[in-house]
Amino acid sequence: MDDLTNQKKRLKIQSWRRGMKEMDLILGKFIDKNFDALTLDEIASYERLLLQDDQLIFSWFCNYEKIPVEFTSVVAKISESIEQIK
Fold first, then answer.
1. Low-confidence residues of the chain, pLDDT below 70?
2. Measuring CA to CA, how many Å separate 25 from each of 18, 45, 69?
3. Left (φ > 0), alpha (ψ -120 to 50) or beta: where does 63 sit?
4. ∠ CA(7), CA(27), CA(4), 5° rounding?
5. What is the DSSP letter of 57?
6. How many Cβ atoms are within 10 Å of 67's Cβ, its own excluded?
7. What is the spatial distance between Cα 76 and Cα 64, in angstroms, rounded to a whole number?
């Protein structure tokens, strides 16, 4: 199994098992649908995003907190994906 396949599996597990159901649904659905379309830079940014606390990430999606510059692009991409699901 190659590194990218292992990375995909790991990110799917980390996305679906966040501890906050809302984030499981947002991030899990996003990575399931979009992993293959992400660039290596976007994957790296997404990995860094997953290191953040669920409450903080959720606050970015709800516009309660300002999104840090390093996550602006990936949060926008996830938000676009959420809009397509509705």
1. 1, 84-86
2. 9, 19, 24
3. left
4. 15
5. H
6. 18
7. 15
Q: Tell me, what's the pLDDT at 2?
A: 86
Tokens of 30: 């996003």
Can you tell me the distance from the alpha carbon of 73 to that of 68, in angstroms, rounded to the nearest whole number? Answer: 10
Inter-residue contact 45 to 71 (CB < 8 Å) = yes
pLDDT in the model for residue 4: 86
Q: Return the pLDDT at 71.
A: 97
- Give the HSE-up count for residue 81: Cα atoms under 13 Å, Cβ half-sphere: 20
Res 82: pLDDT: 80
2 is written with which tokens? 């190659």
